[in-house]
Amino acid sequence: MLRVDWTKFETYSEPIAIIIISYAIGKLLSLLIRRYIRKSANVMHFDPTNYNFLQNAVSFIVFICATLYIFWRIPTLHSFGKTLFAGAGIAAAIIGFASQEAFSNIISGVFIVIFKPFSVGDYIKLLTSNQIGIVEDITIRHTIIKSIENRRIVIPNSVISREAILNSTIKDPRVMFNLEVVVVYESNIDRALEIMREEAQKHPDFIDGRTDAKKLENYPLVVSKVVALEDNGVRCRAYVWAPNNDAAFEMKCDLLKALKERFDQEGIQISHAQRLMGLNTKKTM
C-alpha cells in the first residue's frame, strides 16, 4: 500500500502556494498600476510609456519578498539561504562598485520620471552644454533629444540631471520673442514702431499673451519700444507672443521679411554697418 508522507507534502505545498499567490498579486498590482497610469495620462497629458518600468518593478519586488519569506519559513533552507545571501552580498558589492555609473543613471532616470523636470515632447535647452531640442524618449539609462538638425543626442540620465534646463513647454508652451530691427536716425521712428505692431498682429500665428488684468487696462497687444541708440542707428524692439517655440521661429522669419517690405514702402531705411577696408599695396622695384 502506497503511503503518503504528509510532512513532506506540507513542507513543499506552502512554498508552491506562496509562489502562486505572489505571482497573482504581482500581476494584479501591475494591472492596477497600468490602469491608474493610463487614466492619469489622459488627465495630465503625459506619456504613459515612461512609467512602464514601474509596472515591471512591482512584480519583481513581490517575487523577491515571496522568495525571502519562503527561505524564512522552511528551516532546511536557513543554512543554504545564509550561504546564498552571503555570496550574493559579496557579488553585489563587486558588481555595484564596477557599475556605479550605471546605477547612477538608473536612479537619476527614476527621479526624472517622478519629479518631471521635462517630459517626452518638451522643447528644452541645456544651459551648460547649450544643447537644444525636443525630448524624444526617456529610458532608465539615458534621455534622447532630437535636435533642430534632426540629430539624436543621447545623454546619460546622471549627466542631464545635473544640468540647468530651460523648458519651453512645461505648463505653458507659449513663447514671447523679441522682434528687433535697427533703422537710421533720419527715419520716422514712431511710424517704424507702429508698423512693427501692425505686422505682428497680422500674422496668423500671433496670439494674445496679455493677462486678464492687462486686458482690462487695454494694454497693447504688441508693445514696441526704442531700446538702444547705437552708432549706426536706432534699435527698435517689439514683444510678440507665439503659441509655441516652433511657431515663434517661423513667425520671426516671416515678420523680418514683412518689415523689410513695409519699410521700403514707407520710406524707412534699415541701418546696416559698412566697413571701409583700405588696401595697402607695396610697389616693388
How does this structure look, described?
By secondary structure, this protein is α+β, with helices and mostly antiparallel strands. The protein folds into 3 domains: 9-98, no CATH class; 116-167, Roll (SH3 type barrels); 175-266, Alpha-Beta Plaits (2-Layer Sandwich), CATH 3.30.70. It has helices spanning 6-44, 52-73, 78-98, 100-115, 157-160, 189-202, 212-216, 245-266; strands spanning 123-126, 131-138, 142-147, 152-156, 165-167, 175-183, 223-230, 233-242. The strands form 2 sheets. Strands 4-3-2-1-5 form a 5-stranded antiparallel sheet. It has a 3-stranded antiparallel sheet with strand order 6-8-7. The longest helix has 39 residues, at 6-44. It starts with 5 loop residues before the first helix and ends in a 19-residue tail after the last helix.
Short key terms for the protein model shown above:
single chain; 285 residues; alpha+beta; SH3 type barrels; Alpha-Beta Plaits; five-stranded antiparallel β-sheet; three-stranded antiparallel β-sheet; 8 helices; 8 strands; elongated; disordered C terminus
